[in-house]
Specification:
single chain; 592 residues; alpha+beta; Alpha-Beta Plaits; five-stranded antiparallel β-sheet; 25 helices; 55% helix; globular
Amino acid sequence: MTLEMGFVLVVIVVMFVALLLELARPDMIVFSALVIFVLTGLLTPEEAFKGFSNQGMLTIALLFIVAGSVQKHGLLEQLMKQWLSKSKKVRGSMFRFYLPISLSSAFLNNTPIVVTFTPMIKNWCEERGIAPSKFLIPLSYVTILGGTITVIGTSTNLVVHGMLLDYGLEGFTLFQLAVVGIPVLILGFIYLFTVGYKLLPNNKGFSEQVKQDSREYIAEMTVSNSFDFINETVEKAGLRELKGLYLVEIIRESERVSPVKSTTIVRAGDRLIFTGLISTIAELQQLKGLQLETGTHLDLDDLKNGDVQLVEAVVSHQSSLLSKSIKQSQFRSRFDAGVLAVHRNNERIKSKIGDIILKPGDVLLLLTGSDFIRTYQQSNDFYVVSSMETPNHLNENRKKGWFSLIVLITMILAVTLNILSMFKAMLLAVFIFIITKIISPEEARKKIQFHVLLLIASAFGVGTAMTKTGLASWMANGLLEIGEPLGIIAILIAVYILTNIFTELITNSAAAVLMLPIGIEMAEVLSLDYMGFAVTIAIAASASFITPIGYQTNLIVYGPGGYTFSDYIKVGTPLSIIVMLITVTIVNMVWF
């Protein structure tokens, strides 16, 4: 190993650790590694930033706009509602619902699909007394499985395709991955309908738990001068034996009193932190001299007259709220809404609301005005925004919806028949959507997830550094020394597992970019078809089932389904093994 190779390896290891510890946003961490390579002279600016003009990455940007245009007018949602309403049995409903969703995810970005259908499925389940947790992880998984059928099914496939073109090799055709993707989807369905269904938890929905007062929330109340028990003990003030409510902390200027004893004195200006049932919290504010802090001018009493509503919102990967406390983000002034509760890993966070530092996947219980959902439905700050009372409706326009769907199908046919390349087809689709006003330029800009593009483009540069310094070749030879005596199957399994581990720990696109140079080197040394390794890496990088953090769609359903980290491990591990065995077997048969 040369000094340059060692330096690149150290930077990549530090990058991995930073990604694991969530020290910053993934795109900023990978971009920082790229900047280091440029500043140290390992990469020229042209080599480092070549990924920003990569055809695969630019196609991903266009697909964000295409998917947003097709889903904007609510046609798919209405068709799916009608289709779903015809099913009576739970598993029959799963099949009717997930088959068309998985097929649509082969042609549309799966993130907006999951964002669109998560609140719909949740409401549908709650109307029928079914646990949403039985449906939401499968929603994420089937979109991932469906995305393995075509090259435009996931950003990962397009990233690998773009890298192959950069290497001067032939990229994927539209349905080349289907030889693996279709068997993976079929067997994945069978697993999810049988063993997987039994392994899924039977959690009540978030909103259902609120309605039944079965989940604890945190509330903050301020003691004013008009409180009748100032300078009296907590017990005498009647704050000790409250039904379904517990006084966990008193904040007095810079002092925190915790645990609160029955003999603790209550003083004017004290901020009382309660945990308990939302109905009891609402009753407590009727006491003279105690004022509920909702973080907004809105009040729980306003729920009765319909002026305000309880809203559930899931914090997104690209949210501007991340890595800062709710107070620092000025949530109240920005959104004109108050945060009543924050849930993470299906547990209430035991902290003062304003001090909580938000993370992707956190579920916020908000007290908002009646127009909050309409205003922030398309916001990058939240994945899912849905009312606790009424289902979420998109701006419906059936004619525009059908037109956008026809345009998409036409473009797919043009790619299939080799009339247009994928990039040109998606570019034409976006052009048609904008000139026909299906989507405005401003809406198109908002649909593009720039943090995803920055991550992918930066990862391209990191991959270039691995190839240029010889690190990719060195790692490939190391893997071959271990795997070659065991045969090609063992080598493919090793490549698959390593890629899949990277995907679960960091991100799918970054895993693909880092592993593809290694895979191509291995193919060259073994004199095998590079396409077999490229397909293996593309599928392994997409098949993220074991953790909620490896793939965005897993994180989107994390909070609304009330899941724990272990639920993904329990349900996702067998599915991951199934996908690996199918992929390795078919790749060996078809390409080797």
